[in-house]
Amino acid sequence: RSAEPPVRAVVEIAARQLGDADAQALGVLAGTAGLIVSRMSYTAPTRPAVWFRGVFRDHYQLGVELASVAF
C-alpha cells in the first residue's frame, strides 16, 4: 500500500474473444466472448502505483462508482 494517495486512474474496458490462456483460466473454450478490464492508478501525474487486469466470462455486470477527489 502506498503512503501517497492516487491522483488519477486510467481504465480500459474491452469486449474480446478470449485467447487460450484466459479461456483455460476461466474454464471455457478459446474464442468465447469475454470482457477485459485493465486499470492503472497513479500517485503522481506520471508515477504508476497499481496495475489491475481482470478477465471476465461471457456473463457479467459492470458497476461503476465515482467519487469527488480533491487534487
TrEMBL record:
A molecular function (GO) held by this record is:
DNA binding
Q: Which InterPro entries match?
A: Chorismate_lyase_/UTRA_dom_sf, UTRA
Q: What Pfam families does UniProt report for this protein, alphabetically?
A: UTRA
- Record-given protein name: UbiC transcription regulator-associated domain-containing protein
Q: Which GO terms describe its biological process?
A: regulation of DNA-templated transcription
Q: Which residues form the UbiC transcription regulator-associated domain?
A: 5-57
| SUPFAM superfamilies on file | Chorismate lyase-like
Query: Which superkingdom, per the lineage?
Result: Bacteria
